[in-house]
Design a protein that fits this description.
The complex is a heterotrimer of chains A (294), B (402) and C (350). With 402 residues, chain B is α/β, with parallel strands linked by helices. Helices cover 46% and strands 19% of the residues of chain B. Chain B has a 7-stranded mixed beta sheet with strand order 7-6-8-9-10-14-15. A 3-stranded parallel beta sheet of chain B has the order 2-1-3. Classes of the chains: A mainly alpha (294), B alpha/beta (402), C mainly alpha (350). Chains B and C meet through helix 1, helix 2, helix 5, helix 6 and helix 8 of B and helix 2, helix 5, helix 11, helix 12 and helix 13 of C.
């Protein structure tokens, strides 16, 4: 029983990492309707900034994270401006390919700037842990912080999109760009802001990802990026609570598949579950089922 | 219309690419690998004497495995610069990127062929080297790989040699060592399920363990994409009472395993192989986590032995990092070549075939002292014989085991 | 009116055939004269394989209008099945081209079966959800082949999953070694075989697109509900396109694999799927000639950039982004349109 609970906690801590990355994915997808495959690499950049701030310049972790958020936000705006904005009227696949180009670019730039040698990331939340049941069950601080961060981000994002003016503009853009423009919404600016927010979230995700699993290389972001994308689809892409749910479930399923089925086939099991879920609920767990008009 | 424009653009790009391709093949510019370090290789090639050998290799210089390729390239470059400064035999070194992929490795090798490669350093990683070794075998170009350790690299090819241990040797040597020293009663193994190197060592370890009646209680894996969380593997090992974990893998995932086991409050003994080397030099790594980790490695960057110390110092000056085993292996390759070429009295106006035959003769008979081993010898198959050094990490440094 | 339209596509198709044949002949002549660098020569077969991959994916993405992110999975199925077949037949069939042909057919059949099985769930979904499910299948296929062991001995074939339990008898041979993939392959793929495969692929795809079935597929792409309402069997036609696309990818995989002495399941991962998708999008959806040129150009490009050494992949990424921006730039497009219209006027005057 304790083993089961321990696995559950491992699953939740892994899932919370997926969730926090998925939030950024889903946010951008929901509004700009594009799969931003460079998201994982923005995470990596955030983690490197954080690493250098804390390890090399010995700044306090909080300052490091804030710095990473600032740099990533700017980076997100620059990428959006240079690579995505000129393609606003192009087919969505063209933007997808450009995003892949950006992803290659970031990875290779990181390789040249920061060398391929792995770096060990200093945890931004310390490596303490909470022990329950006489130490039979342990929950690390990173997990607690990550889940708390996820929930806070989820609530803030939901409130932001529901109540603020910019948030409403975002939702309008996601519904119908043309109509939004007619209503006097600056669609371009709104999408740019979305990218800025998404990239800022990526920095937080990077810091937490590397605090939980502390090795940092230029390709650190790519696999978690794909997993998080899967998580976002799992929960219903575009849905903010869906990203949290999808991420957590994916993490738990992955750990259980390893523990109770096979460590060798765990990835296959995770993806098989995803397929089954999508067959039953074709728009993900919390996705909006769009009815087709005839 | 858009399509036409596209086709036009692409056709232009292709034309550009093709001309670029042929232009690189014809050019006799010195290696671009050399320029990155501002080495003196370029100066020496200017005076194109009969002693300048074109030596090349492929390795992952970009992508996830870039650390290994770059280390090998840098290590080889240091050796080449030293040798070129001595006078006598001169090398022109060129490393091409293969992104740790067999297809790209063939492309890289073909580029080297166009450049006029005479002797090869094979490829840095196992799978690409398996692919390029088939080519160098057919083309009769002698290859000495610094670090591609799988047996398939050598199998059935008379002109392929390794400077590193072959995978099965590492696995069985580790099992033998654990059994001889009675290090453990119950053993757990965690290995990487989509990696040739890890799998190769794992298999020979398991075979030897069975032979020696070692009790392997837990056998779990990971792969690319789920190489961050090891809680399941560690819980399995812990719950089955393993007191030693064998880690046939590179140091990066190993560092995560050490950290996570520590967080779980599980402290078995650890036993690693040569891929574990480098764990102490990871920037920001808490060396106390690796306290007591044992590994079989041919190279020790902390060694006070003068040759090694000089190499480490030079590497740090040039590249700002502490060299790992790959760098040392590649460094040894170049010096082994120097020795063999000098012994054979080879000149660079010889054909590939002549050089290949000479090298086969030299390498199968000579003995070489390098950073990664004293008096190394090679058998006919191309596998090296050198004694692995058992090391244990104490207070953040390697200490010889015995 | 309809006649003119017909002749236009036919012209385009013949142009495509013509250019492919021309490219083949030119390469053969240059090769015969010894003017082709080893580097380019080594890329000919992979280029052929990637061209077939791109054209077959274009059938799914361009003609059927569904985004697939797991096309490399079919390539993987083809590579493993085809290569295994070739190894098994090594002793019984001595003629390499015949052995290659049989292997490619077997690869195509297995990939088609995989395509059919995967198509059943996949084609029920739409848009990005379909895309993610194809990605998932690609990963599952990779995972399975990473754990598959196949051996052959006098008693026949032995298959096991997870660990090597094939227990081969005397003289037996392990063909697929799990994470080790397949090694010791005889390299029987040739440029000519690749060329023939491209031509077959083009014949299949063009005939499909210009047939009743092809028109039905495109009608579904343009408006599924309208197509359904006039009695087009959506599932049947979509499945048809998907299976054909998969089987061609399988053949390409076998061709690709037998050009190297060794390959592993990880080669056919998500990144390879994406690479092929880049070919298709860059070449233009539904535009087969574009796919062919894009596949060839983008395979050669990273090699041509080797002189940039460390900056190679960085430059590649920048070129990729710039080409995408340039080809979708409205100003450039209108400029080309003007160029075309003035060109037409000149023609009219003449």
């Amino acid at each position: 029983m304790m083993t089961f609970l321990n696995f559950l906690i491992s699953g939740i801590s892994l899932g919370s990492i997926y969730a926090i990355i998925a939030l950024g994915y889903t946010m951008v997808y929901g509004i700009a309707k594009m799969l931003n495959f460079a998201h994982g690499d923005v995470i990596m950049v955030g983690a490197y900034i954080c690493f250098y701030a804390i390890s090399r310049f010995e700044l306090p972790p909080v300052v490091g994270v804030v710095l990473a958020i600032a740099v990533c936000t700017v980076l997100g705006i620059v990428i959006e401006r240079l690579a995505y904005k000129p393609l606003r009227s192009a087919p969505s696949l063209a933007v997808l390919i450009t995003a892949i180009g950006v992803s290659y670019f970031l990875q290779n730039a990181a390789l040249l700037l920061w060398s391929p040698n792995p770096k060990v990331f200093p945890s931004v939340v310390g490596d303490g842990k909470v022990e329950l049941f006489d130490g039979k069950l342990t929950v690390s601080h990173v997990t607690i912080v990550t889940i708390t961060a996820c929930v806070i981000i989820m609530i803030v994002l939901t409130l932001f999109t529901e109540t603020t003016k910019i948030g409403k503009a975002m939702r309008a853009c996601s519904e119908d760009k043309g109509a939004a423009q007619l209503m006097g919404i600056n669609v371009n600016a709104t999408i740019s802001i979305t990218f800025a927010i998404g990239s800022g979230l990526a920095a937080i995700a990077g810091a937490l990802l590397c605090s939980a699993y502390p090795t940092l290389i230029p390709t650190t972001g790519s696999m978690p990026g794909i997993k998080a994308f899967t998580a976002a689809v799992f929960g219903g892409i575009g849905s903010i609570p869906g990203a949290l749910l999808g991420g957590l479930l994916l993490g738990v399923i992955e750990i259980f598949a390893k523990a109770y089925i096979s460590t060798q086939l765990s990835d296959a099991v995770v993806f098989a579950v995803l397929i089954i879920v999508l067959l039953v609920k074709p728009a993900g767990l919390l996705g909006k089922q769009i009815r087709e008009k005839v | 219309m858009k399509k036409k424009l596209l086709s036009l653009l692409l056709a232009a790009a292709m034309l550009f690419a093709m001309t670029a391709c042929s232009s690189t093949s014809n050019s006799s510019t010195p290696s671009n690998a050399g320029t990155s370090t501002g080495s003196s290789a370029a100066d020496n090639t200017a005076a194109d004497g009969p002693v300048v050998f074109k030596i090349g290799g492929t390795g992952p210089l970009t992508g996830g495995a870039a650390i290994y390729g770059n280390a090998a390239k840098n290590g080889a470059q240091i050796a080449v610069d030293e040798i070129n400064a001595m006078g006598g035999i001169q090398f022109d070194l060129r490393y091409e990127d293969d992104v740790n992929d067999a297809e790209k490795a063939i492309n890289a090798y073909n580029t080297l062929k166009d450049w006029g490669i005479q002797i090869s350093l094979g490829s840095v990683t196992s799978k690409p080297c398996e692919a390029t070794s088939a080519e160098t075998y057919v083309d009769r170009i002698f290859a000495l790989t610094p670090s591609a350790s799988s047996t398939a690299v050598l199998e059935g090819k008379d002109n392929q040699y390794q400077i590193c241990f072959v995978d099965p040797n590492q696995g069985s040597a580790s099992a033998q060592y654990i059994s001889d020293k009675k290090l453990a009663t119950k053993i757990a193994v965690i290995w990487k399920n989509d990696d040739v190197y890890s799998k190769g060592v794992y298999e020979s370890f398991m075979a030897k363990a069975k032979e020696l009646n070692l009790d392997v209680v837990s056998d779990t894996t990971f792969a690319d994409g789920n190489d961050t969380d090891f809680s399941v593997q560690l819980t399995d090992a812990q719950s089955k009472g393993a007191d030693l974990i064998f880690l046939p893998m590179y140091y990066q995932p190993a560092s995560l395993i050490l950290a996570q086991a520590n967080a779980m409050g599980y402290s078995p003994k650890y036993f690693g192989i040569d891929g574990m080397d480098g764990i102490l030099t990871m920037e920001g790594f808490d060396a106390s986590l690796a306290e007591g980790v044992m590994l079989l490695t041919p190279f020790n960057a902390d060694s006070t032995e003068s040759k090694t110390a000089a190499f480490v110092k030079k590497y740090q000056e040039l590249f700002g990092e502490i060299p790992n085993q790959f760098a040392a292996d590649a460094y040894d390759c170049i010096y082994a070549y120097k020795q063999a070429l000098e012994n054979a009295g080879a000149t660079s106006d010889m054909s590939n075939e002549e050089l290949c035959d000479l090298m086969i003769k030299e390498f199968s008979s000579m003995s070489f002292d390098g950073l990664t081993g004293e008096s190394m010898t090679w058998d006919e198959s191309g596998a090296v014989t050198k004694s692995p050094k058992g090391m244990v990490i104490k207070d953040g440094a390697y200490v010889g085991l015995d | 009116m309809k006649n003119i339209k017909w002749s236009k596509t036919t012209r385009k198709n013949f142009l495509t055939y013509g250019l492919v044949i021309l490219a083949y002949v030119v390469m053969q002549i240059l090769g015969g004269a010894g003017l082709v660098s080893s580097s380019l020569k080594g890329m000919l077969v992979p280029i052929c394989a990637y061209v077939v991959m791109a054209v077959s994916l274009n059938l799914t993405v361009g003609v059927m209008g569904e985004l697939s992110l797991g096309h490399a999975g079919f390539m993987s199925v083809g590579a493993f099945c085809g290569t295994s077949t070739a190894i098994i037949l090594q002793d019984s069939i001595s003629s390499a081209p015949l052995r290659l042909a049989i292997s490619l057919v077997v690869a195509a059949i297995f990939a088609a079966i995989a395509g059919f099985l995967i198509g059943i769930p996949v084609l029920r979904l739409r848009g990005d959800y379909l895309a993610i499910v194809t990605l998932a299948f690609g990963e599952i296929i990779k995972s399975v082949f990473n754990n598959l062991y196949l051996g052959v001995d006098s008693r026949g074939l032995h298959i096991s999953l997870l660990s090597d339990r094939t227990n081969l008898g005397e003289g037996g041979k392990l063909i697929i070694g799990g994470p080790m993939g397949i090694g010791g392959i005889q390299k029987i793929s040739t440029f000519t075989a690749g060329f023939v495969l491209i031509i077959i692929t083009l014949v299949v795809v063009f005939n499909l697109v210009n047939s009743r079935a092809g028109r039905a597929i495109m009608a579904i792409r343009d408006n599924r509900i309208a197509a359904e309402s006039v009695g087009v069997n959506v599932t049947k036609y979509k499945m048809m396109a998907f299976v054909i696309s998969a089987s061609l990818a399988g053949a390409a995989g076998a061709l690709f694999a037998m050009n190297y002495s060794t390959f592993v399941a990880n080669k056919f991962d998500f990144n390879t799927s994406i690479l092929v998708l880049v070919f298709v999008v860059l070449g233009g959806q539904g535009n087969m000639l574009g796919s062919i040129i894009a596949a060839a150009a983008l395979t050669i490009l990273p090699e041509a950039l080797r002189e940039y050494a460390d900056y190679r992949m960085l430059v590649y990424a920048i070129i990729l982004i710039l080409v995408m921006l340039a080809t979708n730039n409205p100003k450039l497009k209108s400029w080309m349109d003007r160029l075309k219209s003035s060109h037409k006027k000149v023609k009219e005057v003449a």
